[in-house]
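Go through this:
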Amino acid sequence: MSQSLLFSAASFTAPRCSAALHTLLLCSALCTTSLAHGQNVAGPTPAAQPLTAHAAAVLQADEAAARRGQRSQIAVLATAHLSALPAGFETRRLAPLLDKLQAFAPGKIAIESLAGPQCDYLRDYAFLYPDTAEQYCYDPTPARQALKLSGAEASAQLEKILANPSSQRPGAERRRLAALMMAAGDPISALVQWLRLPASEQKAADGLTDELVQALQKRRLSNNENVSIGAALAVRLGHERVYPVDDHSGDRATGPVDDKVFGAEMGKVWDNAAANTRRQSHEQGLQQIGSDPKADVLAWYRTMNAPQESQLAVAGDFGAAAGDNQPGMSGRKYLAYWETRNLRMVANIREITGAHSKVLAIVGSGHKAYYERYLGVTSDLELVDINRLLQ
């Protein structure tokens, strides 16, 4: 991957990246956080892909779990990437949304972020994933140097401390947990620990250096939804951490990519009415929320989580890619990456759910359809309508 790509589809230009694959990932992230604004989009005709006799056998597990009852509940909150809002956006405007999510009372919160172990893997195998860790991962080096621990060693200490639940941990223990979480590559969970400290206890000590404290203080000011929704809600609920479930280990599913061919073909894939509508709505929604302090944030989230949004997302992006028949098969390569990524993200959610949990998964709006599709084939999970929670 030698050249940066600029994808232009109907006046939309993706940011510059160091490689073609990273450009498509960023473009996808931007293209999949827009709003449908009440448009009616007809659903597609289901593909003729019936269950095989072997696959149908799993229905017995589905039915048995349903008869038993009390399946784990999963609610998927689609969101725009709030880092696109202006720096002066007051995150307190998210309070009505947080109130609704708090009433759901999830026991675990999954966020669209890479876990520390995967980031270590991406760094170790940088020859396969050039620049991926630099682009998507937090750098745990300062914390690891301060504690003189590897990521695995920090994680082992974390597991030992968290194995003893406590709602009233002393300040020294919370500071130690925050430092260990940063060393483990989980800065959002570290922020949860930091925010649960009284102001008088928020200081450099117990493994937290001045540098690490400054990093936490800077992160707490971020608009990013992992912070402004995920961490904020975790603190409200008295959680110890959040759960990063994103995945970029499957980025290689595209196979070899010719930058020039890929850029040209994906530009054509994304040049369609549904994609253009989403881009325009995305820009309008962010502009309105960012510029009008009276704009209704909760109504914005209801719109992002309406079925019409997922219909537009798939029609303009992944559906268009699936139907691509250009000679370079760029659309099909892109779809291979997207399906692989979402399958692994959902597998991570299933892992943290375990035998029984109530989980809130916060994710960019383009993922919601795929999350619910893949979560829906599990036997012991029950999908909760997020829009009912937001009423």
Notes: The chain has two domains: 72-112+245-257+267-391, 116-222+229-237. Residues 116-222+229-237 form one domain. The longest strand covers residues 72-79. The longest helix spans residues 330-353.
